[in-house]
Amino acid sequence: MAKSFLLLILVMGGILTVDQTIKALFVDGFRYYTECIDLILVYNKGVAFSMFAFLEEALKWIQLTLLVGVVGYTLWLKKSCYLIPAGIMTGAGLSNVADRFIHGGVVDYVYWHCGFNFAVFNFADVMIDFAVIWLLILNMKPKFCKS
Prior knowledge:
By secondary structure, the chain is of the alpha+beta class. It has helices at residues 2-27, 57-77, 83-103, 123-140, and strands at 32-33, 37-44, 106-112, 120-121. 59% of the residues lie in helices and 13% in strands.
């Protein structure tokens, strides 16, 4: 159990550190513009596509509660194959929640506008998507999760 918790904490801390470091560059003024992708600064008050922005201050507490639940459930499962993707997901989620406490909204910075306008997102968002896909594969293909 202690090794599992340590691995989860290390993965969470790594993702959180990388994401917060990148976000600090944009908060400090870094910008870059191209034909298809702009690297800009946007504070997202909601979640994906600004949904649930009406929840305002409550949103960060709801998200924090859900992340604690993910960590607790992952440790309760006692399956080591879930530790890394769950750590990635919770580390990225905690980074976005930290933004809400520090900046009043999530720091987003990648804006895709080649052919169509897409939402502005960040590294943590990509890592959450990656972790969800990884967890879905583990659940749909049990042979990949033996322990």
